[in-house]
Write a structure and sequence with these properties.
This protein is an all-beta fold. It is built from no helices and 11 strands. It has strands at 2-7, 10-13, 18-26, 34-39, 46-51, 57-59, 67-72, 77-82, 91-97, 113-114, 118-123.
Length: 124
C-alpha cells in the first residue's frame, strides 16, 4: 500500500515558476522509481519526469532544461521545480510511485499508484 499527496499547484503567468511537492508513504517511494505525470484537458495523461531508486533522472523533451525532479528521502517528499512555464504546461499534475527500482519508464502501467493531482494553470 502506498499513499501519495500532491500540493503546490496554482495559477501563474507564462515565464513564471511553480514548485510541486508530493508526500509519500508506504511500500513504494524511497529507493524506487517515482514520476510526475500531467494531463491536459482532452488529452491522455503523460509522464514528464522520472527519478530512479539511485536518483537518476529523465525528462521528456518538452520539459528538458525547464523542469527538475528531485526527492528528499528524509522527508518522504518528491518535488518538481517548474521554471519558464508555458501555456502548454497547463494541466493536472500527478505524482506516481512504482515497485521497481530502475529502468524507470514514462508509461502509466509501470506505476502502481497515483496521487489525486494538483492543478497547474499557466496564462499567457
Amino acid at each position: 500500500q502506498v499513499q501519495l499527496e500532491e500540493s503546490g499547484g496554482g495559477s501563474v503567468q507564462a515565464g513564471g515558476s511553480l514548485r510541486l511537492s508530493c508526500v509519500f508513504s508506504g511500500d513504494y517511494g524511497s529507493g524506487k522509481c517515482m514520476a510526475w505525470f500531467r494531463q491536459a484537458p482532452g488529452k491522455d495523461r503523460e509522464g514528464v519526469a522520472v527519478i530512479s531508486g539511485d536518483d537518476v533522472t529523465k525528462y521528456v523533451d518538452s520539459v528538458k532544461g525547464r523542469f527538475t525532479i528531485s526527492r528528499d528521502n528524509a522527508k518522504n517528499t518528491l518535488s518538481l521545480q517548474m521554471n519558464s512555464l508555458k501555456s502548454e504546461d497547463n494541466g493536472m499534475y500527478y505524482c506516481a510511485a512504482s515497485p521497481y527500482r530502475d529502468r524507470c519508464q514514462f508509461y502509466e502501467v509501470f506505476y502502481g499508484a497515483f496521487g489525486q493531482g494538483t492543478q497547474v494553470t499557466v496564462s499567457s
